[in-house]
Amino acid sequence: xxxLKVKWIGQSGYLLNDGMTxxxxxxxxxxxxxxxxxxxxxxxxxxxxxxxxxDVVICTHNHLDHVDIDAIPLMKxxxxxxxxxxxxxxxxxxxxxxxxxxxxxxxxxxIGDFELKAVFADHTVPAVGVIVKNNGITMYFSGDTxxxxxxxxxxxxxxxxxxxxxxxxxxxxxxxxxxxxTKIINPKVGVPTHYGMxxxxxxxxxxxxxxxxxxxxxEYNAEYDVLEVLRNV
Length: 233
Ligand SMILES: [Zn+2]
Fold this sequence. Notes:
This protein is of the alpha/beta class. The protein has helices at residues 32-37, 89-94, 175-185, 206-209, 226-232, and strands at residues 5-10, 13-17, 22-25, 56-58, 81-84, 99-102, 108-111, 114-120, 128-134, 137-141, 161-165, 189-193, 223-225. Helix content is 15%, strand content 27%.
C-alpha cells in the first residue's frame, strides 16, 4: 500500500516520505538570504535544521534558497546523502557535508522505493529539475528554471504531479509560462511553487491554479497524502 506523503516546506522545499525513506528537496530553513542579500523570510522556518531526518537531501542548484549555507552546517548529516549538480559540490563540502553524489542532468539515484532522476533546467547557474518515482507515482519538481522548449519533452514521463516555479524573476519562468508548460506536460495535478518566501520575488498562486483544471495549491507546512491529492483534483 502506498503511503507516500508530501509536505511543502516553503520556497522550492518539499519533504517526500513513503513510510520507509524520506527525501528532502531544496530545504530553506535559515534566514541567510536576509543576512547576505537583505531579503527576509515572509514565513517562519517550519522546523530547525537539526530536526531534519531525511535520508537524502537534493539541492537543485547552488543558490542560497536551495543550498542553505547557514542551515546545512547545523543538520545532522552523518547518514544523509546530498545530491546536487557538480557545480555545488565544493560549497556543500564547506558546509560540512560528508556524503555527496553529483546529480547532473541524466543522473539516476535509487534509494529505498524512490527513483530520483536529474532532468534539464535552464537557470542562471548549473541547475536540475527532478523526476521522482515511487510506487507507480511520478512527480516532477522543476527547481528554478526559465521556460525552455526542452522542458516540453518531460511530457514523455507521464507525470502525475508537477511542482512548478511561477515567480517570473531571477531566472525563473513566470506564471503564464508555468500554465503553458503545465498544459503541455498535462499532469493529473499541477502545484505552483517558489513563491511566498521573499516579498520582492513572489507571485499569487491563484494566478496559476485558476487557469488550470488540474491546479492545486498546497498549504505551507501541511502534509498531504499523495493518493488523496490525485483523487481529489
Ligand atoms: Zn530559488
